[in-house]
Design a protein that fits this description.
By secondary structure, the chain is an alpha/beta fold. The chain is about 35% helix and about 20% strand. It has one domain: Protocatechuate 4,5-dioxygenase, Chain B, CATH 3.40.830.10.
């Protein structure tokens, strides 16, 4: 059967993509960020760690959806997904190649689990999806695995609750494990960490909240399941709600505990806090990266 072998979290800051495209990823400002991703890039290339499929949880930024269509949860079931034009042309990255058979299987399973999924048979993917791929896979001619885009509405009120997201992750795990093909599947939860892009609190970063969130994502996800929207808004800024997408990843790893293989936290990156993790369900037993934790703050 297919199995979920790891979860990765990553910020999807658009300026990271711009740094790659402009050749500034090694300068004094961006260099520490890209250095922090090197252990993830090395780990995923180790034998047994490259996934066959990534379920990539992200939020669309008015590229595939707008105020006329606002799905809470969507799943990309197409063969391929082109890079979206976000106002300055599409990012010069490979098309995302999907896995329609697995995506349709997951969609059916989630709907029968009473999640109201929006099925996308045509969709462009923006930086929310492609920047994490670039940060972890670099600049290949084609992405080294298939990707199922999984957009979540964390842009327009009301976003889904943390509990609903965690439960969705649990259902994704059950769906993957009921798929008969032998596949190595990873779930990536993207977005965050604390940041606010507008208003009097623009530029807000809350290191204490972020590090507590990482701790509880690993050790006490039940607390995060119960965290209300207002706490994200108050403590992590208006865009901090993106962190509920990390709970989808965490729920997909199961309830028997996880092993933290790597942690990276850095502030500031553009006007946000940036976080990246590698987590595995207990008992997988893969070797961790050579650098286990790096907190540049």
């Amino acid at each position: 059967m297919a199995r979920i072998t790891a979860g990765i979290t990553s910020s999807h800051i658009p300026a990271l993509g711009a740094a790659i495209q402009t050749g500034t990823s090694g300068n004094d400002y961006w260099g520490p960020v890209f250095k922090g991703y090197e252990p993830i890039k090395e780990w995923i290339q180790q034998p047994g760690n490259m996934p066959d499929v990534v379920i990539l949880v992200y939020n669309d930024h008015a590229s595939a959806f707008d105020m006329n269509i606002i799905p809470t949860f969507a799943i990309g079931c197409a063969e391929t997904f082109k890079s979206a034009d976000e106002g300055w042309g599409p990012r010069p990255v490979p098309d995302v190649v999907g896995d329609p058979d697995l995506a349709w299987h997951i969609a059916q399973s989630l709907i029968l689990d009473e999640f109201d999924m929006t099925i996308m048979n045509q969709m462009d993917v923006d930086h929310g999806c492609t920047v994490p791929l670039s940060m972890i896979f670099g600049e290949p001619d084609k992405w080294p695995c298939k990707v199922i885009p999984f957009p979540v509405n964390v842009v327009t009120y009301p976003p889904p609750s943390g509990n609903r997201c965690y439960s969705l992750g649990e259902s994704i795990r059950a769906a993957v494990e009921s798929y008969p093909e032998d596949l190595n599947v990873q779930v990536w939860g993207t977005g965050g960490m604390s940041h606010q892009l507008q208003g009097p609190r623009a530029g807000l970063i809350n290191k204490d909240f972020d590090l507590a969130f990482i701790r509880d994502l690993i050790e006490d996800p039940e607390r995060l399941r119960k965290m209300p929207h207002i706490e994200y808004l108050r403590e992590a800024g208006s865009e901090g709600i993106e962190l509920v997408m990390w709970l989808i990843m965490r729920g997909a790893l199961g309830d028997k505990g996880v092993e933290e293989l790597y942690r990276f936290y850095h502030i500031p990156a553009s006007n946000t806090a940036l976080g990246a993790l590698i987590l595995q369900p207990e008992g997988i037993g893969a070797a961790p990266p050579s650098v286990r934790e790096q907190v540049d703050a």
